[in-house]
Each structure stands twice: as structure tokens, then as C-alpha cells.
Amino acid sequence: MNGKIKYIIPSILFIVVAIYLAKDIYFAQSDIQKNSDVIEKLSATSKQGKETVHRTKEQIKEFNTNPKAAERLLRERYDIIRKDQFIIRQQDDADDIDNRQEDGNNDKNN
């Protein structure tokens, strides 16, 4: 009996430690995967931000060096047209413009 206890106690202790280590390894791998996903998302966001900064710098450079480009950028952003131009819009676009104008009037009234 005494000889069996010598082998049973270390065996039980070994099994408990092995289970603990297996659980720890599983959770560590899970955390690593979550962190990898976060790193990928941050990398994608960083890349998108860098592309936006690059496009903006190019627009600024073009705006400062080319008057026609400056005029084009202003026309696109603020829907400005020249005296000899006109715009034909679909009904949905016209409704959006009417809503923006109504919102602007509401802001002035408040």
C-alpha cells in the first residue's frame, strides 16, 4: 500500500500540473489570436490613414500650383458652377438639395 502511494501522489500532481499548463497554453493562444486580429485591423486603419494623408497632400500641392485644379476642387466640393454652365439633377438629388436648404433655414431660424 505504501509503495502505491509513492506513485499515486506524484501521478496526480503531474496530471494536475499538466491540465493547468494545457489550459494556460490554450488561453495564451486564444489571446495571441485576438491580438493578431487587433494588429491586422490597426494596420489596415493605418494604411488607409496614410493613403488619405497622401491624397490630401497631393490635392494641396495641386491646389497651390495649378489654378484650374483649384477651381475644379472648389467646384466639386461646393457644387459651384460657372455662368455658362448648368446642372441637370435627378429627382433624388434635387430632394437632397431641398432638404439641405431647409436644414439651413431651420438653423437660421433657431
Say how many strands there are: 0
Supply the number of helical segments.
3
User: What is the gyration radius calculated from CA atoms?
Assistant: 33 Å
* Uncertain segments: 105-110
Estimated share of beta-strand residues: under 5%
The string of secondary-structure elements, in order, is HHH
Q: Major sheet, described briefly?
A: none
Q: What number of structural domains do the residues give?
A: 1
List the quaternary state of the chains.
single chain
Q: How many angstroms separate the termini? A: 92 Å
Average residue-wise pLDDT: 80
Query: Helix content range of the residues, please?
Result: over 70%
Structural class: mainly alpha
Shape category? rod-shaped
Note down, in words, how this protein is organized:
The chain has 110 residues and is an all-alpha fold. The chain has one domain (2-109). Helix content is 86%, strand content 0%. It is built from 3 helices and no strands. It has helices at residues 2-65, 67-78, 91-109. Helix 1 (2-65) packs across helix 2 (67-78). The longest helix has 64 residues, at 2-65. The protein starts with a helix and ends with a helix. The model is unreliable at 105-110 (pLDDT under 50).
